[in-house]
Amino acid sequence: MLSKQRVVITGAAGTLGQATAKKAQQLGAQVIGLDIVAASSLEHTDSYRQLDLLNRQAALDCFAALGEIDVLVNIAGGFAMGDTAYDGDSGQWDKMFRLNVDTLRNATMAAVPKLLARGGGAIINIGALGALSGQAAMSAYCCAKSSVMKLTESLSEELRHQGINVNAVLPSIIDTPPNREAMPDADFSQWVSPEQLANVICFLASPEAGAVHGALVPVRGLV
Description:
Layout: E1 6-10, H1 15-26, E2 30-35, E3 47-50, H2 56-64, E4 71-74, H3 92-117, E5 121-126, H4 139-159, E6 164-171, H5 177-182, H6 194-205, E7 216-219
């Protein structure tokens, strides 16, 4: 399904990044992992580059050196909660927009010219099911992920007639070690596994999803 496709995954060192890289490799892709983590290599990636995606010029330079690519999976991001929407001392607003929106925009700015030059490709973003409505003590995260979702739709309108599919998945709670640590009494079997989410991401990255444009796909498990 992804045979001979060159797939770039941001946030490749994380739980979802590694699950997506593994699935993409199983489907025949050559996986290029990007993350801020210092490492000589990562499991399930064919090549790895350390990159701070908040540095736009660094992102542009990195992608320029990658050669042709077929798919960009924007997984890099972050989560924070606890502060109120009216807290003037909170730093969560800037943090959530930088980690979730700025990283995506910088990677996308770097990738789109390459996709256009080769005649098409796919971009998959990570939204959030919970951000479809406002949540108490989560305003910064919800607003940032809402921006990711609207940016996905806008990019799709701009790029779909040029052969580039842009879509997003909207997970509920992903079964990751940090989420288990934060919610030890939850029923983990109700959550979305990284492997389940990776399956959907890789479908959207594949030619089989060629008719899917601007979709915000809920992947909620049993939550």
